[in-house]
Amino acid sequence: MTTQSHYQQAIVFAAEKHTEQGQTIPGTGLPYVVHLSNVAMEILMAAPHTPDFRLDFAVQVALLHDTLEDTSATPEEISRRFGMDVAQGVLALTKNEVLPKTEKMPDSLKRIRALSPEVWAVKLADRITNLQKPPSHWDHAKIAEYSRESIQILQELKGGNAYLEKRLEEKINEYKTHFV
Ligand code: NI
User: Fold this and answer.
1) With contact defined as beta carbons under 8 Å apart, do 90 and 61 qualify?
2) What is the pTM of this model?
3) Residue 22's pLDDT band (boundaries 50, 70, 90)?
C-alpha cells in the first residue's frame, strides 16, 4: 500500500471521529482535521531529511494522534484498523487524564521516549503546529507556561529528529515575541 493510501485511510477515520465530537481548533473555529493534516504535513516535510524513517507509520500516527484523547475511538479499534504499532504510538501521545495537571506532559513524554523515533517526531510536529499566535483569551502566564512546556518537549525528545528539533526551536523563538 502506498503512503498516499495510508494517509487517506487515517485522515478519513480521524476526520469522522473528530467531526462526531463537533471538534474545532480552539480559538479558530476551523475543523479539527486542519490540525491533524498540518501535523502530517510536518512529518512529510521532515521525512526526506530523516534517515531510516518509517513514513507510512509516522503519517498514520500523526493523523490519529488525538483520536484516543478526544474521540470515541478505542485502542482496540485503532489496532484492528491500523495495526498494534500505530495504536501503541497514539496511546503514548495520549495524556493520562487521572494524573495531576503538571504530571501529564512528563508522563506522556516518558512513554513516547520508550517508543521509536517516528513517535517522537509526531510529538515534535504536534507542538510545532500548535505554536501559533496564542488565543486572545490567554493571559501572559498561560502563554509563558505554554512556551516553557514547549522547551521541555524539545529537551526531552533531543536526538529524535534533527530536522523537526530545529523547526521546533525556531517556532519557540518566534513564539517568545508574543509575551516578551
Ligand atoms: Ni495535537
Assistant:
1) yes
2) 0.96
3) very high
Distance 94 CA to ligand 1 centre (A): 10
In tens, the pLDDT along 51-89 reads 999 999 999 999 999 999 999 999 999 999 999 999 999
Cα gap 55→63, rounded to integer Å:
12
15 C-alpha vs ligand 1 centroid, how far in Å? 13
- What percent of the chain is modeled with pLDDT above 90? 90
Look at residues 117, 58, 43, 44 and name the one whose alpha carbon lies nearest to residue 90: 58
Delineate the domains of the chain, giving CATH numbers in brackets.
Answer: 3-178 (1.10.3210.10)
Please identify every residue annotated as catalytic.
69-70
The CA-to-CA distance between both ends of the chain, in Å, stands at 48
Q: What pLDDT is recorded for position 137?
A: 86
Distance CA 168, CA 126 (A): 10
Q: Ligand 1 centroid to 128 CA: how many Å?
A: 10
Listing DSSP states for 138-178 in one string gives --HHHHHHHHHHHHHHHHHTTTS-HHHHHHHHHHHHHHHTT
Q: pLDDT averaged over the chain?
A: 96
